[in-house]
From TrEMBL:
Role: Converts the free carboxyl group of a malonyl-thioester to its methyl ester by transfer of a methyl group from S-adenosyl-L-methionine (SAM). It allows to synthesize pimeloyl-ACP via the fatty acid synthetic pathway.
Lineage: Bacteria, Pseudomonadati, Pseudomonadota, Gammaproteobacteria, Pseudomonadales
Highest rank taxon of the organism: Bacteria
Family annotation (Pfam families): Methyltransf_11
Residue intervals of the Methyltransferase type domain: 58-151
Organism name: Pseudomonas trivialis
UniProt-recorded name of the protein: Malonyl-[acyl-carrier protein] O-methyltransferase
Record key words, sorted: Biotin biosynthesis, Methyltransferase, S-adenosyl-L-methionine, Transferase
GO BP of this protein: biotin biosynthetic process; methylation
Amino acid sequence: MTDLSHAPLPGGLPDKRQVAASFSRAAASYDSVAELQRAVGSQLLARLPAGMSPQRWLDMGCGTGHFSRVLADRLPASQGIALDIAEGMLNHARPLGGAEHFIAGDAERLPLQNASCGLIFSSLAVQWCANFEAVLGEAYRVLQPGGVLVFASLCVGTLEELRKSWRAADGLVHVNRFRTFEAYQQLCAASGLRVVNLERRPHVLHYPDVRSLTHELKALGAHNLNPGRPGGLTGRARIVALVHAYEQFRQAQGLPATYQVVYAVLEKPL
């Protein structure tokens, strides 16, 4: 089951209990605003090795179960496990089907047997894990020889426009922190898994105004969860300053929000 420590996690990443609670609250609204999540998950699916037919797959950080259902359609002969740290997401996903088992659990300590899965799929979940070395270690343990881990995550440079605009407005921490791409490279290389592919690609969304972006982040459960974030309501003067600063980034399509997405395909040696 999930380990939900009260203490702030190393490296400035948010407390997992806050992450679980935030995404649980967002379960009902998540799918209506999940454009990025759908696009990235689809890109990740396209990176699955051709001809894969694992006996069992794991959707690690399944959220509302959208990609669990896609995997079930693509791999009809395989048994599926959907796992998430947020009970609210699992409660939303379970009635919609797609997996044989829905489990509350932590990617850093998977409640699964050794060598029990041929595929681990994880889209936009592991950026919330402070100990990514443990995530890779658990993937290595749970994968069968020849099994594959495919994951998409976020790295430094994500929401940089919002970060810079808040810095200009008040200098406080308002935007979630993420690992560097170089850290992903180093940790994957040292994991014991064979790195088939590891790349970083920007994905840019556009919004008519700042409120539309911040509303979407809240609806996704991905608003500011950092230790050191400002408490209480954000003052009107700071909001005005934020809007003014962000307007400097405006493009013809609207206000850009850039996500730096990490895509990886790793294989456990035979």
